[in-house]
């Protein structure tokens, strides 16, 4: 029998929870009990330590929390984290988040995206990077997309690892004759170390919790970060340019600077530019 209001289990990558008010309870396997206790106390909810995480236990949690979301810690379900798992009565499935849905749009419309954007690279962010690291520096590019910025970065003498979470963009760059790798900034390890990390118009698709996670990982992988994201209020879904939905997260200067500070970065340059209807932040930060 299908559940009208399915239960959701939040499997976090870390303990940053955006919408704490929606968490009904924390469950933890014994090895994660102390972490679960601290999280439950912070969220103001009950902690239950479960002896096992077999299907019967998970089914019991799902039955108890129909229409609610709970946190499950210390359990390996073989999923890439973070993830939300939903039980509809017929079994468990991973619920795609806003970034997953945006990536699905890029998978369908990669060529259309390339046709819709300027051919010129983002010299403003590349100039910032060039202020902080010398030619020959090893740069991890997150969200390489069509590869236009990587070409300019290499022209200036940097050694670029091209990556993208969209397979269509990875295949596009390979078809153009470049090495490129599939890497999801939220769920995958960055490897390294690198001399710098570069991300042009990538962070604007990440929710605030995801961006915090990515910034922390970046601080472990490289001492320099250069990126561009959009100024504004709140979040939005837009079909602009691609006629398919993409999710955008806007930032104000002070909250973004605060987030960088709390995730291990010191802001060196924080500049604005106007492009069409949008104002962009161009940021250079060094590891604190």
TrEMBL record:
InterPro entries, A to Z: SAM-dependent_MTases_sf
Identify the Pfam families for this entry: Methyltransf_23 (PF13489)
Write down what this protein is called. Answer: Methyltransferase family protein
Q: Which organism is it from?
A: Kribbella antiqua
């Amino acid at each position: 029998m299908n559940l009208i209001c399915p239960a959701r289990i939040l499997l976090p990558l870390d303990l940053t929870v955006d919408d704490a008010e929606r968490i009904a309870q924390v469950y933890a396997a014994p090895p994660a009990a102390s972490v679960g206790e601290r999280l439950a106390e912070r969220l103001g909810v009950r902690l239950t330590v479960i002896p096992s995480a077999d299907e019967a236990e998970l089914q019991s949690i799902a039955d108890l929390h129909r229409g609610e979301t709970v946190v499950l810690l210390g359990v390996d379900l073989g999923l890439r984290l973070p993830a939300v798992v939903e039980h509809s009565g017929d079994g468990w499935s991973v619920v795609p988040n806003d970034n997953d849905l945006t990536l699905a749009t890029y998978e369908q419309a990669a060529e259309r995206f390339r046709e819709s954007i300027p051919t010129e690279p983002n010299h403003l962010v590349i100039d910032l990077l060039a202020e902080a690291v010398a030619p020959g520096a090893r740069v991890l590019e997150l969200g390489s997309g069509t590869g236009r910025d990587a070409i300019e970065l290499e022209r200036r003498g940097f050694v670029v690892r091209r990556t993208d979470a969209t397979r269509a963009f990875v295949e596009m760059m390979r078809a153009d004759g470049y090495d490129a790798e599939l890497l999801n900034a939220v769920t995958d390890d960055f490897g390294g170390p690198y001399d710098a990390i570069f991300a042009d118009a990538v962070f604007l698709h990440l929710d605030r919790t995801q961006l915090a996670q990515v910034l922390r990982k970046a601080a472990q992988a490289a001492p320099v970060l250069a990126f561009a994201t959009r100024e504004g209020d709140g979040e939005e879904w837009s079909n602009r340019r691609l006629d398919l939905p993409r999710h955008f997260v806007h930032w104000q200067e002070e909250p973004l600077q605060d987030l960088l500070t709390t995730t291990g970065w010191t802001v060196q340059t924080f500049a604005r530019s106007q492009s069409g209807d949008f104002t962009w932040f161009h940021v250079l930060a060094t590891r604190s």
